[in-house]
Amino acid sequence: MRAAGCDTVVDAKDLAVVGITEIISRLPLILHLYRHLIAEADKRKPDLAIVIDSPAFNWRVARQMKRRGIPTVYYVAPQFWAWRQGRVRLLRDFIDKALVIFPFEEQFYRERGVDATFVGHPLAELPYPAIERNDYATQFHLDPAKQWITLMPGSRVKEVRMNLPTILESASQLGQAYEYLLPVAPTLDRSFLLGLAGQDENSQRKITLVPDALPALFHSRAGIVASGTATVEAAMMRTPFVMVYRVSRLTYMLGKPRVKVPRFAMVNLIAGEEVVPELVQHDFTAEKVVARLKEILPDGPARDRMLEGLARVKARLRAPQAESRPPQHPADRAADIILSLLPKL
């Protein structure tokens, strides 16, 4: 967005907090950023507001925009279908248009009085990486004769601290028969990951940090992937994986009763069935990760079923295309809708 000319008033990475209890220490900073953003809106007087994801912060921004008579679009609408469904009223009251990226969301929100349109998932049209496997191996000093496993512990410091140690233990148990690739999310510091993934003479695995997740996933035999957008990326690359996740005990205890969906992994929710195994909280152990990986690493029925399921998920993430128009990328479709809502000048 900055490259396209966006003037950043508040950086979204300063709002990135995972968990119920974890947010408390960040509240003063978040409140300061919120007030600063609203003050800038009053100064600049926008014709339209677009809020993206981050519901705890953005519905409050949307409320302030509503009070000022500024039309507001929610792109990547909150996952209120998963928990706290009563909060759908916040969208109904403060949002003029919701643009949703999962196919089941349009009906969910429309049934509750929200003007929602499924525009397709931005990752659904991802092309496969162009770089050949041997070239990639040469670039990052990988052994092309071995199978590769991509490790994706999350994009925020807190969740990486919770997820990565067990992921690394899983890699140690699998041993040196594989190469392990750890993509560095833009929100993380490389030295932070190097510290957590440090090698020693007794290590049974070598971890290779790489800059981009998609080539790593595309050329990997399988992945260990934390719940979130990364699971969709793995599906788009047709990489079989095991989904994992862990939060603090208190966050899990407080949050679990509020969860209203039968599955955690987004690909499973989209498919309406278990395509990939889910190892969450107490089930997330190195032994269980290794056991589930060993089911999908070799060729066979288990791997074939998962690949077929991932293909179905990819197909469902594409929004229907109008016959009278050329195919559109989901972002272009969203942009057209947003432009149509701008006040006529």
Task: Summarize the structure in words.
It contains 14 helices and ten strands. Helix 1 runs parallel beside helix 2 (55-67) and helix 2 (55-67) runs parallel beside helix 3 (88-94). It has a six-stranded parallel sheet with strand order 7-6-5-8-9-10, sandwiched between helices. The protein has 345 residues and is an alpha/beta fold. The chain starts with 26 loop residues before the first helix and ends with a helix. It is globular, with a radius of gyration of 21 Å. The protein has helices spanning 27-44, 55-67, 88-94, 103-110, 133-140, 157-174, 190-196, 213-218, 229-236, 249-255, 266-271, 286-296, 301-316, 330-341; strands at residues 49-52, 72-75, 97-100, 116-118, 147-152, 178-183, 207-210, 222-226, 241-245, 278-280.
Strand tally is 10
Shape: globular
Q: Which sequence of SSEs, written as H and E, runs from N to C?
A: HEHEHEHEHEHEHEHEHEHHEHHH
Distance between the termini: 24 Å
Tell me the Rg in angstroms: 21 Å
Secondary-structure content class: alpha/beta
**Contiguous runs where pLDDT drops below 50 for at least 5 residues:** none
Strand content: 5-15%
Overall pLDDT confidence: 87
Largest sheet properties: 6 strands, parallel
SS field, number of helical segments: 14
